[in-house]
Amino acid sequence: MSDTERTRRTRNTNTVKAENLTPPLSMAEPSKKRRMPDSSPSRTRSSNNKENDPPGIHPETQQRLEGLERAIAELRDDLRYEQARGNMLDKELKIAQIFIKGLQARFEAAQEELKTLRNTEQAVQEIKDSLEALELEKVKAEVRRFKDVIGTVGRYLFATSYAKPGTKPEVQAKAALE
């Protein structure tokens, strides 16, 4: 390997390293190629070169560099897209978390309301049972009073059927009840 080729390879490697160390260009700016001037006298510029290659860079290497620059630009675009997508997903996650908190609050309120309804239902059942017991007691009292009335009427009728003629019915009933 000749000294010229070593110098060229070292220079090309340094150029790539320098390009990798430079800050990235924004997507609004057109891609600017950074080229180092060639100080070697062995290579001169040809006037018929369409790509205007800088002296000292082999055309194949230049194509590789351009391919790498395109790949880097595509990766930057992909990175920006993924970052924007990540930001969007973060926003959607925050919205979903707020929605979940709202649902949890509704669920807790519904549980409290259910607990209150169960307590109310239990109280209503107790009142209903009390009313039924009270009604039953009232009915029993009415039945007892009715039996007492029937018994009194029965004794009165019995007493009046065997009463002596000419006595007052009140006196006869009183005598029958005693």
From TrEMBL:
Highest taxon of source: Eukaryota
Positions of region (Disordered): 1-63
Protein name, entry field: Uncharacterized protein
Origin species: Gymnopilus dilepis
Lineage of the species this protein comes from: Eukaryota, Fungi, Dikarya, Basidiomycota, Agaricomycotina
